[in-house]
Amino acid sequence: MNITEMIALVRVDLSDQDSGDYQWTDEELTRHIDRAVRELSEQIPLPAKATLATTADSREVDISGLTDRIIVQAVEYPTGNYPPSYQRFSIWGDTLTIISGAEPDGANCAVYYGTLHTLDGSGSTLPARHEDLVATGACGYAVIERAAATINRVNLGGEKTPAELRLWGSERLALFQERLKKLSWRQKVRSQQLFKEQ
User: Can you count the helices (H) and strands (E) in the chain?
Assistant: First the structure.
């Protein structure tokens, strides 16, 4: 799915399919979709791996190049061992410190981390099973924004329109947040193998 297809999906959910009289512009919907994708990424990050050089006689590794990083899940040093030599680590800003194992000698380490998903004109990294969830969140944000914009304005639906829109949007966002919470990596029990420090 690409952003154009996602916009079309959100328009279906919003009943905003009259191309001659759209209630939301593509730019507005793109902003709401981007927000929903970012929130989904915080709970279900895109898995990534980076091979980074260490510095001899230093336990610190610069991870500033890991753009859109959400979480670092594991650090392997040295690489190439079986089973892998995972090390304990800490992070402060863009500096990762390898706490356990032998002091690095300048060889590479492997950093396993989670990053933001993308959804643009060329495609998406979102799992197909989560596309409807992103649409749900985007709809909620779009409707709440519209509710705020209709306050103190003449509406065809009457004076209750802003409140009804806000309620509907809030219900969509509550569903979005509830489903995200259930899918979150923070809620899952992960089985881990403990390795002897080297």
Answer: 4, 9
Helices 131-150 & 3-14 angle (0-180, nearest 10): 60
Judged on CB neighbours under 10 Å (0-12, 13-18, 19+), 169 is buried
Cα distance between residue 158 and residue 156, in whole Å: 6
Map out the domains of the chain as residue ranges: 3-43+118-187, 46-115
Q: Domain 46-115 adopts which CATH fold?
A: Elongation Factor Tu (Ef-tu); domain 3 (2.40.30)
Q: Each residue of 168-193: pLDDT tens digit?
A: 889 999 999 999 999 886 655 444 44
pTM: 0.83
